[in-house]
Design brief:
Elements: H1 2-11, H2 17-21, H3 23-42, E1 47-48, E2 56-60, E3 63-67, E4 73-80, H4 87-100, E5 104-112, E6 117-127, E7 130-141, E8 144-153, H5 154-159, H6 161-170, E9 172-173
Antiparallel strand pairs: 1-9, 2-3, 3-4, 4-8, 5-6, 6-7, 7-8
Helix pairs in contact: 1-3
Length: 174
């Protein structure tokens, strides 16, 4: 019913002589409906998070990317929990993989957000004469693993520590 009506409006098939006088109105409606359909299609993430105003962000294909003005990057995404395991399993697998690559585990702690609880791992990575932090937080809920990663120079992590914690605590599965 309503899908057919929307299609007819978008295609112009529902126009009669009276409607042709108001083409600009129908064109506006078509553009609005098409914009709404596109935004719903591309912004469907299985989670939500509150992003402080000081950050820029983009959302596409189920992934949220958040940027500070000076180079800190935060990514939030959901993956299939395949094989279906608990968060401790995935945190252990991640820990083993990153330690083999030379990452140093600085801190591991549990976190709770709006409707998720999980494990957060903070890594130190020497790179040249600098040190970088890489944080991975993950929570398992049913068939999804919700992952938040943050990466940047150590000084940026210290500068944005409250904002990173705020984004993590606001993370919610839809």
């Amino acid at each position: 019913g309503s899908i057919v009506l929307i299609f007819m409006i978008l295609s112009g098939g529902a126009m009669n002589n009276t409607d042709k006088k108001n083409r600009h109105v129908l064109l506006f409606i078509r553009i609005c409906l098409l914009s709404l359909a596109i935004s719903l299609f591309f912004s469907c993430t299985p989670f939500k998070a509150e992003i402080p105003d000081i950050f820029a962000f983009s959302e596409s294909r189920g992934k949220l990317e958040i940027y500070s003005p000076d180079g800190l990057k935060i990514t939030v995404r959901a993956e299939k929990n395949t094989p279906q395991k608990e968060g401790e399993f995935w945190a252990g697998a991640l820990e083993n993989q990153l330690k083999k690559k030379g990452y140093l585990l600085e801190k591991q702690e549990c976190f709770s957000s709006t409707n998720l609880s999980g494990i957060s791992l903070l890594w130190v990575v020497p790179f040249g004469h600098e040190y970088y932090n890489y944080m991975t937080s993950l929570a398992v809920k049913g068939r999804k693993i919700y992952i938040m990663e943050a990466a940047g120079e150590q000084k940026l992590f210290k500068r944005y520590e409250k904002e990173i914690a705020g984004i993590l605590s606001s993370l919610a599965a839809k």
